Amino acid sequence: MDTIFALSTAPGKAGVAVIRVSGPEAFRAAEAVCGSLPATHKAALRRFRKRDGTLIDEGIVICFPEGNSFTGENVVEFQTHGSQAVVSLLETELSSISGVRHALAGEFTRRALLNDRLDLTQVEALADLIEAETVAQHSQAIETLSGRLADSVVKWREGLLTAMSLVEAMIDFSDEELPPGMTEDIVRRLAELARTFEREIEGSQVAERVRSGFEIAIIGRPNSGKSTLLNHIAGREAAITSEIAGTTRDVIEVRMDLFGLPVTFLDTAGMRETDDPIEAKGVDLAKQRAERADIRIHLVESSDSGDLRIEDGTAFVGQKRDLASYPGFGLSGVTGEGVSDLLHAIHEYLKNSVNSKGSISNERHRRSLVEAKRCILQAAVHIELGEDYVDLAAEELRRAVHELDAVVGKIGVEDVLGKIFATFCMGK
Amino acid sequence: MKHYDVIVVGGGHAGCEAAHAATRMGAITALVTMKRDDLGVMSCNPAIGGLGKGHLVREIDALDGVMGRVADLAGIQFRLLNRRKGPAVQGPRAQIDRSLYKAHMRTEMESLPILDLLEGEVAELLFENSKLVGVGLTDNAAIYGKTVVLTTGTFLGGTVHIGDKRYPAGRMGSKSSIRLAAQIRDLFPRMGRLKTGTPPRLDGKTINWEVLESQPGDDVPTYFSFLTNSTSTEQVSCGITHTNGETHDIIRENLDRSAMYGGHIEGTGPRYCPSIEDKVVRFSDKSSHQVFLEPEGLSTDVVYPNGISTSLPEDVQESYVSTLKGLDNVRIIQPGYAIEYDYCDPTTLSRTLEHRDQEGLFLAGQINGTTGYEEAAAQGLVSGLNAAAKALSKDTVTFLRSDSYIGVMLDDLTTRSVTEPYRMFTSRAEFRLRLRADNADQRLTEFGKLAGCVGEARWTVFAEKKSKLDSAKAIMENKTYSSKELEGFGISVKNDGKKRSTFDLLSFPNIEFPDLLEIQPELSSVEFHVREQIERDAMYANYLVRQERDAEALQRDEQRAIPVDMDYESLSGLSGELRSKLVRVRPASLGQAARIEGMTPAALTLILSVLKRSEAERRA
Fold this sequence. Notes:
Largest sheet of chain A: 6 strands, mixed
Number of strands of chain B: 22
GO biological process, one term (chain A): tRNA methylation
Mean pLDDT of chain A: 79
Shape of chain B: globular
Structural class of chain A: alpha/beta
Largest sheet of chain B: 7 strands, mixed
Distance between the termini of chain B: 53 Å
Binding site for GTP (chain A): 223-228, 242-248, 267-270
Helix content of chain B: 25-40%
Radius of gyration of chain A: 28 Å
Subunit structure (chain A): Homodimer. Heterotetramer of two MnmE and two MnmG subunits.
Number of helices of chain B: 20
Largest interface: A-B, 39 and 35 residues
Shape of chain A: flat
Subcellular location (chain A): Cytoplasm
Mean pLDDT of chain B: 89
Number of domains of chain A: 3
Radius of gyration of chain B: 26 Å
Oligomer: heterodimer
CATH class of the largest domain in chain A: Alpha Beta
CATH superfamily of the largest domain in chain A: P-loop containing nucleotide triphosphate hydrolases
CATH topology of the domain at 201-337 in chain B: Elongation Factor Tu (Ef-tu), domain 3
Strand content of chain B: 15-25%
Distance between the termini of chain A: 19 Å
Binding site for K(+) (chain A): 223, 242, 244, 247
């Protein structure tokens, strides 16, 4: 196996840059660059030199031995000054050593997986952790990274295998005296499993939102102050994390970190009757997007209600508070009146749903669970039809186990891995 | 001096099937047995078939093997197990007349012109320059041949235990092969010990059948062989009795006198076929166990009480057996005993059952850690076919998990090894809905014909059946009907825009063949047994599409071959345990590697990446 290296911190000027080396030759390569190595797990100051003795930089070296490192191989980390020239010189020096080469995308993580340092769900969680922008995303990734999902799958699989073994006993040991009430026992177990999966699937929608962001659509008639409101939120109240041009000219998306939760505000095209076919199409799209969003802030001309309520994901709030006069709650993107109340209400609403999330957040996992649940319910139907159909029930359960195995990567390794590693960038 | 293509050592179920298969392939074959009279002897229960096991017999038969036909000739009670359940989990089983079975087997074997039946005890394998050249007998005679199939059953280092008495023996009344065992142990150090038990044999004249529940055979018998059309002998019923609290008390009081619980036996016994001592100890909350009283034949009074195998001393057997209902005055003809024997770790074998480290040496049957006549015979078939193929320089004959129970068993044995005597179950087959007893011929007979082991007589029968099936299916799939059209025939299906053939309709649980005649009157000429088979084929159609996909995925992994000399030692990142398993099993493909116990996706990916790299290097 080759020894690989790569810059593990973001490229560009920075205070510190970390270059990681992993593989059987990692220690030898590091010695070539900095002379003697410190004891493993101990940081030490060293001078990094070219082979001709020219000084490249002075920095910290840490060595991790095989079996006790991120990849499971010998690993050395160089912490240099974050200069592009230093990094480039050090990389040139490392690649001149035989058996040492630049890492491919995701190669460090792949080795960690190969060496059983991480399982598949953990690798996926690591990708999420690296991508995490908000506190909620971070804590969700950390949970999975610590193996919570894999533990759950093991537990579900165990329950499924128990039910399956009862069904198989009805088939392979039908000649012997089996305990009475087996059918009821199996049906009860399957129903329980289906309920567990159902809860997880429901929770997964929230978890998926934590991962990819909640959508909040601002809707209302043209000129109701939607863009002004969004601009205000974006400019004053929350940090913009990215601004993506809408898929149509009629929806503008702004991604933000709202007190730790990832949200995307959608500024939609104004809703009005129109004869212009292009505009009508835009309005349609905007409506659809708004319907799918987690929360809709509906700006209305006036409001009677004194407090701000989000019910079933929709809040009606008065528009242009600075210009209009009405008895209820209203806000203004110009003066900022009421905006803070709105954001806190949104946060409160989302936080409640986050508390109900399950262990799965990944679409691949969710699909497997949905299919497993379908199989389990179908198996229960077969079992209840009587012993004529136990063969089909057993087949459904076998399929359900297969789906769970896919989550933790027991089968279809190559396909799943290919997809996962394609999302990784170098050196992580 | 005669030089054989194949020498088969042992005349049990594995040996007979191996010799028969080798001759079908055209190999000049010798079968060496201690007693010519014991060809095909059934040393345990007087029954063949069952769930999984019946599937194996059907597959042997589909490949023109001998077990199914002989069992049909000697069958005295036929029952299709799981008759009420789906066809995929139905298994044919029959009570067998032991002496008829032996007699028919002997006739069958003696009728083979290129088979020599030799009497003698094999003492050793003969080598010249470490090349296997034949076997030596205890009388110093030598038999030379290109390949040797060892089917030594429980004879290898066999020890019989009754209470605290024990003596070396292959089975009751036969010598065991001590010298051969010693040589094999030297050649293959990785051997272990297993045990199996038998119940006492009872005198049927002393059983009070009047008070017992009786279990007759099926009204319409289901045979093993695709060639059998009728029953050959008189049919009988079995009796059913139960153990009770008194029985269990006697056994508990005498546990320390049992060979197994007295600590005389080191071998591992099967969990699914426990001795009565085991049942009483491990399931102490169960107050009664079922016992089947199985007649051993028409011309004998011996009865085999299935469910109370034991290694207790004779006097204890006498006293507990008489506590069972109907057995108050029963006379024991032969006491029950446990037998311990050597087996060879089957992961040392390739999928042809040839030993990986000793070219030309094949092992089949209990020596590979299996139990059961059917498992032994199926292995005999595989080893016989491949020993012959090797001797005659033909292609190997291999089976896959997705094509047969034989393939499932070979893969389990050579990949996962055994920790208890291996027995076939339908739940071992993940492609169970495809691998049915009823379609064994559709799956395997053509394959066997190509391999060279299927004779003309069978081929003619199969070809005729297949052409009838094919033409009926062609009629059915020729035309499709919309849900509206079907409504006109009084059949309501989902109105999903799909057009369905009459074959598709058969996969609906409430539609049977006669319902189709109104739609396609031309189907009325289809014969009854063809209709039945089409119904079974159609029933799982929806599931089979999915299984087909899985089978293809499996095939892809199976086709990714791992070289025999793969260097696992130099693969960094394998745990020590997995590495030693890989070195031991030396999987032939990525698919097989995946099935090694404890295998992780990580390790598989590692192996895959090495394979891909070396492929890339070869291309470069």
